[in-house]
Amino acid sequence: MKKRDRTPKTYARITYPMVRDEKGGPLRRATWDEALDRAAEGLRAARGAFGMFSCARATNEMNYVAQKFARVVMGTNNVDSCNRTCHAPSVAGLSAVFGSGGGTSSYEEVDHTDLILMWGSNARFAHPIFFQHVLRGIRNGARMYAVDPRRTSTAEWAESWLGLNVGTDIPLAHGVGREIIHAGLHNTSFIERATTGFEEYAAEVEPWTLAVAEKVTGVPAEAIRGLAHAYARAERAQLCWTLGITEHHNGTDNVRALINLSLLTGHVGRYGSGVQPLRGQNNVQGGGDMGAIPNRLPGFQDILEPAVRRKFETAWDTVIQPRYGMTLTRMFEAMESGELKAVYCIGENPAQSEADSEQAVERMKQLDCLVVQDIFLTKTAELADVVLPATAAWCETDGTTTNSERRVQRVRKAIEPPGEAREDIDIICDLAGRLGHAWKYADAESVWNELRSVSPDHFGMTYERLAEHQGIQWPCPETDRLEPTYLHGRLWEADPARRGPLAPFGLVKHDPPVDLTDDQFPIRLTTGRRLDSYNTGVQSGSFASPLRRGEYLELCPEDAERYGVSVGEEVRISSRRGTVQAPVWVDPGLRPGLAFMTMHFPDEVDTNQLTIEANCPIAGTAEFKASAIRIEKLPVAAVRS
Q: Smallest Cα–Cα separation from 364: which of 388, 387, 381?
């Protein structure tokens, strides 16, 4: 096959402020004073109709100041980030069961567990650092099971691969749960001590016999039985998931279905046993921990709690609205209705990352004021009224980030930013000053210390201790000791007072994908990541990779033959929302009726024109994993050169 000569678009680093003099006009260079004055003017006019998009790649300190800007300067809880696009259902599900939204185990525990269950996760490509722990666990004797519609690179390491139909995770989890109960393998002592709702859960899963689960999921009954017995009999087990579970219209229910299995077997609250949502961006966990979400203040403290609000109101000398703000999903809907008129977007690129991306762009064009603060001139920045050049958090800024295992780690400035680019926190504070709030922070550590003063989970983490221990997991409420690496050990306490709130089983039902396949759209498209690229390609596209081949529509050999298409042949791909063209790639890891694409090359092939904005009602995450498409061969004249 002739190698495709398609170099991804290289995005320019923003090195000076820019403003737009009129809607539809070009961006032009501006001074910092002019750009900040213009931004302040636009935001001031939109008080009461404002939203903040914070950044999952920036530091904890930046996210703390950004959410404080929304709540104190703009008087709103409308603050969110790309957490909404990926793992918001994980946070919602974990919070509902355990009271906090973090994974329960450390990465090190995966090295020493007995069974690793990877559910909806191609961690070898999407989370390669974590996958090294998986490989160490396997080398140390752990058995690995993979649940995924595709036989991915991760599944190749598994003892058993359960290739389920897209959108049937709940039936499979219920089938596993029922088998555990009927085989007498459930942990009755843990269930009685630490949980509520078991009888109702047992009744909910009762109809999901192995035969019924096989019929709905496509997974052989014996494979379901094998997983159920292996997971329940393991002394220690880690249940890990990623976006294959969360990016569905019922993502939170999917998460609850998996957590139910951990409660059923007692695989939580012990070293080596837990549940792990694997979070892809370097600080998507930290952004939520810092309060850059609409329902929690820093330290994951609930806005609806009066005592929590009083604490922050005293610390910040402000009044905090006693209601949840809009999620990112809801903010996009409010743009269309005119309820939201201004957005301050820091380090996010929703013009290309949102489901039904064409609709997302049209909604942002309706804003009266869009301020974008970023390091590259992204597609979102190209839509902005004001563009502010910021620093790269991983090398031009001091601060901290928090990874999937809740580990807070130091980030240190290594190089100076180019041109007129400035620190994110300095920019936010300068803008706050123009809006009547004279904020001054000497450095990132002073921001962190303010956060520590209001977040008990972070109080014990001084910069000195973070350096000494090479990172510390939250919770860390004291400066003279460290907590266990796993969460919720309290559930094993004999004393009810020490045990605390019990963990409820979730009663969830199967709800098929919204975008149904039919004769017109007979193929199920699911999306994901590849090892060589990152998100919408803004950062990774500038660097060459011997693995990168650009965007393809991946089909199984049988479907390629059925449609009469060959590797490298351009085809037209249509959903009920849009149409794109892409060449074909044949992947034997796919099954008939299932196709795969990524979001890494939207300038070449905008996959999110195909995806559907069917959102989880609890978490607001869209169903990126289950679109219905059709494939059409192109006449020779229509094939792109």
A: 381
Instruction: Answer for the pair 75, 47: CB distance below 8 angstroms, yes or no.
Output: yes
pLDDT at 1: 37
Among candidates 280, 282, 387, 289, which has minimal Cα distance to 67? 289
Tokens (6 digits) for 180: 């555990």
> SS3 for 81?
coil
Q: How far apart are CA 299 and CA 458, in angstroms?
A: 7
116, 492 contact by CB (below 8 A): no
DSSP-based three-state secondary structure for 391: coil
Q: Mention every residue, 6+ apart, whose C-beta is less than 8 A from residue 86.
A: 243, 246, 247, 279, 280, 281, 284, 621
Structure tokens at 278: 């694997």
Residue 525 φ/ψ, nearest 5 degrees: -100, 130
DSSP symbol at 636: G
- The number of angstroms, rounded, from the C-alpha of 618 to the middle of its chain's C-alpha atoms is 15
289, exposed or middle or buried, with CB in 10 Å at 0-12, 13-18, 19+? buried
Q: 288 and 281 in contact (C-beta within 8 Å)?
A: no
Tell me which residue has tokens 């004055």: 37
Query: How big, in percent rounded to 5, are the helix, strand and coil portions of the chain?
Result: 35, 20, 45
∠ CA 22-27-32, rounded to 5°: 100
- What digits encode the pLDDT tens for the residues 307-331? 999 999 999 999 999 999 999 999 9
Instruction: Enumerate residues 6+ apart whose C-beta is below 8 A from 82.
Output: 56, 281, 284, 328, 348, 350, 353
The answer to which of 191-200, 351-360, 542-551 has the lowest mean pLDDT is: 542-551
End-to-end Cα, the chain, rounded Å: 15
The string of pLDDT tens digits covering residues 620-629 is: 898 999 999 9
For residue 330, the one-letter residue type is R
- CA 343 to CA 49: how far, in whole Å? 9
| CA nearest to 56, candidates 77, 87, 35, 27 | 87
